Amino acid sequence: MKIDAGESHLRRVSHWKLYFVLLTGMLVLVFIFSLNIGFSHIPFDNILKILAKNVPILGDLVDFSGVSEVQESIIIHIRLPRVLGGALVGVALAVAGVTYQGIFRNPMADPYTIGAMGGASFGAAVAIVLGVGVALLGVNTVPIFAFVGALGAVFLVYVISREGSRVPVTTLILSGLTVTIFFNALVTYLKLIAGDKLHALTFWIMGGFTYTNWTDVSSILPLIIIGTAIVYLYARDLNILVLGEEQAQHLGVELEKVKKILLASGALMTAAAVSISGLIGFVGLIIPHLTRILIGPDHRILLPTSAIVGASFMMICDALARVIIAPSELPVGVITAVSGGPFFIYLLRRKRRGYTVR
Amino acid sequence: MVRLTIDGINCYYGSVKILEDIQFAVKSGKFLGILGPNGSGKTTLLKSISRILKPRKGTILIGDLDIYNMKTVEVAKQLAVVPQSTPVTFDFTALEVVLMGRNPHMSRFAMESKEDMAIAKNSMKLTNTWKFADRPVTELSGGERQRVIIARALTQEPKILLLDEPTTHLDISNQLEIMDLIKCLCKTKKLLIVAVFHDFNLAARYCDSIILLNDGKIVAVGKSSETLTSENVRKVFGVDTIVKKHPVTGFFHVIPISRPINQQQKSLSIHLICGCASGSPLMKILKDEGYFVTAGVLNLLDTDQETAQLLKIPTTSEAPFSPITEEAHTANLKMISKANVLVITPTQFGDGNLRNLNAAETALKEGIPTILLEDGSIEERDFTNGKATKYLTKLKNNGAITVKNTSELLHLLDKLENKNNKNSHQKKEP
User: Fold this and answer.
1) Contact B418, B387 (CB under 8 A)
2) For A234, A256, A298, B80, which has the most beta carbons within 10 A of its beta carbon?
3) CA B83 to chain centre
């Protein structure tokens, strides 16, 4: 019997929940395994106990024997912020990638290629060099500076590459890269004049989560939650944008408003990510692709699942960065690029006909 | 019942004025076509009506409401647009794209309901796209994709449908199928349709009324048959056309006549003896070459007579299906006497038009060069028991020249033209 197309569509939609649950399960597993990786060996049951202890109510019920204070300290103060920071950055970059690809209707758009990362890194570098890191009213200002930089860069790229009502692939990528190179040059200049801040700046530029602490996590957590929530509000608008800007308007999308909100949200999340982990490439590009192949292009499911896949991917990469040349560490950006690059080329070859790149 | 009023709008791109003082109104159940040359402002007008390009002056009203004061979503509930083509980047299925049409009717967090699905299914059935509802739009052909986009527009359940050359990229069967569907929706569901056309014949076939645009201004507006005249088409497009009601379809057809390459007037005047469409192509060719052409005697309603009329070629004519009378014959002789050359086309001869050969004989005697265009044996088109054949043989014997095809004829005429020019020079000099 031939299956009705409407039913098969509805069935596909009902599978969304299943995928979501499965991927969330994966996320939790990756999370716990990541906590297990490190110089000193801490068994899984101890990790679970330490985690449970810090949950209200549940903590009182846990038998805490066999867990040393040192182990607890390592998990809570070193590994947990690091793993959570990685997960949050993964979420931020993946969601920003989905957002930019949706707005520009362009599978090559991501926080890096459209210049947001370049702008954010310049903003963050300015904050570090000025030494206003955590000084201003006790708020971590690095993400704020990064946000201003990212926002500026994205709007600059958008204005440069816009031709009438559309944003062609080539001009978008070219102007994105141009703006990135421009901001990179500014960052290089900042290094020259950094003086005693050079050390901090260099560590930050190298990227990664080696020194990520709870302050970092708590300063970007609200930004990423807000950014993701805002983008999710406009998930259906992102779907409709695939038909082009004019048709989106004909279908009731308030284009200019939506575009500004989404560009800004993408910049916000890029800035949050860059402010704690420096430049990490490829995540915003490949995670949306990978997830789209898994569950399709509908942003209502693509956004949350990309967030989960992005978080998992980033935690895995960071874990690899810790173990490959242990006891030394690789910069996590190296792992994402080395694993992401070939994978992306494979995707391009495999899915080429699926994309009508204009 | 809805009414779309365009009230004196001026539109600009930057500082360039694209539309000037456009004014018209359409109501439910009517199909309005917009025609005009490239750059005349057709698409701009559609953009303006679809709330993309706000006019600097004037208003666009749906009912009593100015669309630029309405919310995007409210306009989307009333008005759907089908563009020329829709590039789609990601692999959404056809059904998913069609369901996007429900967007203006859904709240921000709602998922598509059973009812939304039913509406989408219905419009996909109508546009014959349901059979590939599950396929990614990126894999569909241009025609299939365009039908999906039309299904999407119908799923919006609009009262007004705007189409921008919706069938430009489609083959003839898709064109007719889609336009038939739109026409049908216009009549049965009382949709108000405004469509930009490139193709006169498609417009003439489907539109109740037509607006002709040129340089951003309305040149003509009214019923298709009143607007699509060859005068209007010449005024707007600068192209000569034949506008005729087709005997089989009953629709108006606009047939462009190719522009003459050489418009230099030549000195020779050529008279054609033709009939039954044997002279029509030749008339056009000779006129384009710059010759002065006359023809006769032709029966009214004969194709050659109609062609001559369209090309403004003077003729002597006779009543339909009647033998040539003495009166027409005399008039024809008079016309021939003014010509420099007489050309006899390979037409059929019957007792009705045999007199034309008699006229040719007279012309030859008077020294007018006579050319016989022959593409086969005379016997096959002689319905006079050999009388015509006898005439033609006699003409040949008396010095009429035979040519086998048009290029030979043109070559010969060229020679005669040169000779004629020389003669007139010599006459002038003394």
Assistant:
1) no
2) B80
3) 23
Chain A touched by B148 (CB under 8 Å): no
Nearest by CB to B100, which of A251, A254, A296? A251
Residue of A nearest to B146 (CA): A243
Q: How many domains does chain A have?
A: 1
Picking from B72, B88, B93, the nearest residue to A253 by CB comes out as B72
- List all residues of chain B from 286 to 315 with a beta carbon under 8 Å from chain A: none
Rg of chain A in Å (alpha carbons): 21
pLDDT digits (tens, 9 = 90+) for B226-267: 888 888 888 888 888 888 888 787 788 888 877 666 667 888
| CATH of residue A297 | 1.10.3470.10
CB pair distance less than 8 Å for B50 and A254: no
Q: What does the pLDDT read at residue B430?
A: 47
Q: Which fold has domain B269-424?
A: UDP-N-acetylmuramoyl-L-alanine:D-glutamate ligase (3.40.1190)
Q: Which stretches within B55-199 are classed as H helix?
A: 72-78, 94-99, 114-126, 142-155, 172-188
Hey, where are the domains in chain B? 3-256, 269-424
Output the CA–CA distances (angstroms, integers) from residue B391 to A180, B128, B167, B378, in the order listed. Answer: 90, 63, 55, 11
- Judged by a CB distance cut-off of 8 A, whether residue B390 touches chain A is no
Distance from CA of B97 to the nearest CA of A (A): 8
Global confidence as pTM: 0.81
